[in-house]
Design a protein that fits this description.
CATH class of chain B: Mainly Alpha
Oligomer: heterodimer
Radius of gyration of chain B: 24 Å
Strand content of chain A: under 5%
Distance between the termini of chain A: 38 Å
CATH topology of chain B: MetI-like fold
Number of domains of chain A: 1
CATH superfamily of chain A: MetI-like
CATH topology of chain A: MetI-like fold
Strand order of the largest sheet of chain B: 1-2
Largest interface: A-B, 89 and 96 residues
CATH architecture of chain B: Orthogonal Bundle
Largest sheet of chain B: 2 strands, antiparallel
CATH superfamily of chain B: MetI-like
Number of strands of chain A: 0
Number of strands of chain B: 2
Number of helices of chain B: 13
CATH architecture of chain A: Orthogonal Bundle
Order of helices and strands of chain A: HHHHHHHHHHHHHH
CATH class of chain A: Mainly Alpha
Structural class of chain A: mainly alpha
Radius of gyration of chain A: 23 Å
Shape of chain A: globular
Number of domains of chain B: 1
Helix content of chain B: over 70%
Chain lengths: ~270, ~300
C-alpha cells in the first residue's frame, strides 16, 4: 500500500523528465501524431545537434558557465571571510552588524531591480559580464550558514593555532575550511544552482545574443515554437542539455546538500 | 600591548568584512534607499529629471485594479503551493524514510524537480499540459474526448502555474522532511510502541511536534520562494490569456518597470511587496515560533 503510494508519487514527480527525454528523441513526424506515443519509434539523436544549432547555444553555454562559475566562487570566498570574521574575530557591536547583513535575506531581490538597472546603466555595465556577475555576488544566505558552522568549531583548536602564531587567514584556510566541508559544499551548491538557473536579472541586464545565458536561450526557443518555426522535439532536446549538468551534480551531492543546509540553517 | 593586539584584531575584522560589505552597500542597501525615493517620483527611466509627486504612486496603487488582481493571484498561488506542498512532501518524506526496495532511486527522482532550471521545467510543463502533444491527451483520446487547453483559460492557467510550483516545492521540501525524519530519536518511538500508541498516533503526537523546526523552516522558505514566482509566468502564460489574468506580483513589477517604463510607480509597487512579505513572515513567526521546540 505504502509502496504503491510511493511509486505513484515518484511517477508524478518524474513524469516531466520522462516526457522531456521521450519527446527529445522522437522523429519530427511523430510529434504531430495524436494521441502521442509514450515511446519514440526510433531513437533520433539528431534532435540534439539540431537544437544546438537552432540558437547560439554554444555561446549561451559558455556565458552561463562563466557567469555562474565566477559568481559562485566569488560569493563563497567573500562569504567565508565575512562569516569567519563574525564568528571568530573580536569587533565592537558585532551582533548588530551581523543582523544588518542577515536582514537582507528578508529583502526581496525584486525590489532592487529598478535601482540596480539604473546604477548599472550609469556604470556602463549593461550587457556585460560584470553586469551579470558583480551584483549577484553578495548574498546573506552563505554568510549565515557558514557563520553558524564556524561558531560550532572547537575554540581550543583556534586558540592553540593562535598561540602557534597562525594568523586568521591561515586558520580560516587550514582549520575552519577543512572542518566545514559539508556546509561549505551545500552553500556552494545552493549558490551555483541560483546562478545557473537565474532568469530575471539576465533578462533585464542583457540585450544582445552574445551575452544571453541558457534560461534566456530557452525562452527564445519557446517564442520560436509559438511561431511554429521550431518543433517540440528540438525544444525538449534543448531542455535536456540545459538541465543536465546540474542534475548530474546534484545526483551525486544530494545528501551533502540537504545535510549541510540542515546543519547550517536549523541547528545551533 | 593588549590594546595594540585588540586594534590589530579590529583591523583584521574590517579587512575580512569589507569586500562583501561594499557589495551589500552598493547593490542591496543603496538600492533600497534609492527605490524608496523613486517611489515618490514620476519617472520613465529615460528623462533626465525626476518629478516628485509625493504619495501619488501609493494612492494610485490602491485604486489600481491590476495591483489587486496580481496581489490576489500571488496570494492564491503562494497559499496553495506552500500548504499543499507541505502535506504532499511530509507524506512523501515518511514514504521515502521506509525501508523499501529501490529507495535510492526514488530519493534521487524526488529531488530532481527542485534542481531543474525553472525556465526549462516550465517549457516541459507547457508540453505536458498541451491538449494535443501532452501525455494526458493519450488518456483523453482513449475516452474519445478532447483535453482542455489549460493555458488558454484564465482559471486553468493559474492552476497550471500552481501545479508547477507545487511540483518544485514538493521536491524541495520532501528531502528536508526525509533528512529531519532520519534524525529523530528512535527511543521515543520504541517507548511509544511499548505504551501501545498506534502508528498514526505516533505521527501526530511524536513526529509532527519533533519536526517543528523543519516544518517552520520550510514554511518560511516556501513562502519567500512562492511570492517571487516569475520564471513560470514568463515562460508559460506571460500573465495571460488576457493580461493580467495569471500575472503575479513580480511579473507585474517587471512589466511596469521594463515594458511600460513606469520606474517611479514600479518602485512603489516594489516597496509594497517588501512590506507585505515582511508582514506575512512576521505573522508566520508569531503564529508558529512559540509552538516550535528546538531540541538540545
Amino acid at each position: 500500500m505504502a509502496y504503491l503510494l510511493l511509486v505513484i508519487s515518484i511517477f508524478m514527480l518524474g513524469l516531466p523528465f520522462f516526457w522531456m527525454l521521450v519527446t527529445s528523441l522522437k522523429l519530427p513526424t511523430e510529434i504531430n501524431v495524436y494521441p502521442p506515443a509514450w515511446l519514440p519509434s526510433e531513437i533520433h539523436w539528431n534532435n540534439y545537434s539540431d537544437a544546438w544549432d537552432a540558437a547560439p547555444f554554444g555561446r549561451f553555454y559558455l556565458n552561463s558557465a562563466l557567469v555562474s562559475g565566477v559568481a559562485t566562487i566569488a560569493q563563497i570566498a567573500l562569504a567565508l571571510l565575512m562569516a569567519y570574521a563574525f564568528a571568530l574575530i573580536q569587533f565592537p557591536a558585532k551582533t548588530a552588524l551581523l543582523l544588518l547583513v542577515l536582514s537582507t535575506m528578508m529583502i526581496p531581490d525584486e525590489m532592487k531591480l529598478v535601482p540596480n538597472f539604473i546604477l548599472l546603466t550609469k556604470l556602463g555595465w549593461i550587457d556585460t559580464y560584470a553586469g551579470l556577475i558583480v551584483p549577484a555576488i553578495a548574498h546573506a544566505f552563505p554568510v549565515f550558514v557558514l557563520y553558524q558552522q564556524f561558531r560550532q568549531l572547537p575554540r581550543s583548536l583556534i586558540e592553540a593555532a593562535h598561540a602557534d602564531g597562525a594568523g586568521h587567514l591561515r586558520i580560516l584556510w587550514q582549520i575552519a575550511v577543512p572542518m566545514s566541508r559539508p556546509v561549505l559544499t551545500a552553500a556552494a551548491l545552493v549558490s551555483l544552482l541560483g546562478h545557473w538557473n537565474a532568469y530575471l536579472w539576465p533578462l533585464i541586464i542583457t540585450n544582445t545574443g552574445s551575452m544571453r545565458t541558457l534560461p534566456l536561450g530557452i525562452a527564445y526557443l519557446r517564442k520560436q515554437a509559438e511561431e511554429g518555426s521550431v518543433q517540440w522535439n528540438l525544444l525538449m532536446a534543448a531542455a535536456v542539455f540545459v538541465v543536465l549538468p546540474i542534475v548530474i551534480l546534484y545526483t551525486f551531492a544530494q545528501k551533502q546538500f540537504v545535510e549541510g543546509i540542515m546543519r547550517g540553517a536549523l541547528k545551533g | 600591548m593588549t590594546s595594540c593586539r585588540k586594534h590589530r584584531e579590529w583591523l583584521t575584522f574590517l579587512g575580512f568584512v569589507t569586500p562583501n560589505a561594499v557589495l551589500f552597500l552598493t547593490f542591496t542597501y543603496w538600492p533600497i534607499v534609492y527605490s524608496a525615493w523613486l517611489s515618490f517620483t514620476d519617472w520613465d527611466l529615460l528623462r533626465p529629471t525626476h518629478e516628485t509627486v509625493g504619495l501619488d504612486n501609493y494612492l494610485k496603487l490602491l485604486g489600481d485594479a491590476r495591483f489587486w488582481r496580481v496581489l490576489g493571484n500571488t496570494a492564491i498561488y503562494a497559499t496553495t503551493v506552500v500548504i499543499v506542498a507541505q502535506v504532499f512532501s511530509f507524506t512523501l518524506g515518511l514514504l521515502l524514510n521506509m525501508k523499501l526496495r529501490g529507495q535510492q532511486i526514488f530519493r534521487t527522482v524526488a529531488f530532481l524537480p527542485h534542481v531543474t532550471m525553472t525556465a526549462a521545467a516550465a517549457l516541459v510543463w507547457v508540453l505536458l499540459l498541451h491538449p494535443q502533444y501532452g501525455p494526458l491527451s493519450a488518456v483523453y483520446s482513449a475516452f474519445g474526448v478532447r483535453g482542455p487547453n489549460w493555458l488558454d483559460s484564465a482559471s486553468m492557467s493559474l492552476g497550471a502555474l500552481i501545479l508547477v510550483g507545487l511540483w518544485k516545492e514538493t521536491a524541495f521540501a520532501s528531502l528536508f522532511y526525509l533528512a529531519g525524519l532520519q534524525g529523530l530519536p528512535q527511543e521515543c518511538y520504541e517507548a511509544a510502541t511499548i505504551d501501545g500508541a498506534s502508528k498514526s498516533a505516533q505521527v501526530r503526537h511524536l513526529t509532527i511536534p519533533l519536526m517543528g523546526p523543519t516544518i517552520f523552516f520550510l514554511l518560511v522558505t516556501g513562502t519567500i520562494a512562492a511570492t517571487k514566482a516569475f520564471d513560470t509566468v514568463a515562460i508559460m502564460t506571460e500573465g495571460g490569456p488576457v493580461y493580467p489574468d495569471t500575472s503575479m506580483y513580480v511579473y507585474h513589477l517587471y512589466t511596469l518597470a521594463f515594458r511600460e517604463y513606469q520606474a517611479g510607480y514600479a518602485s512603489a509597487f516594489a516597496f509594497v511587496f517588501f512590506l507585505v512579505t515582511i508582514g506575512v513572515l512576521i505573522l508566520q513567526w508569531r503564529a508558529l515560533a512559540r509552538r516550535v521546540h528546538y531540541g538540545e
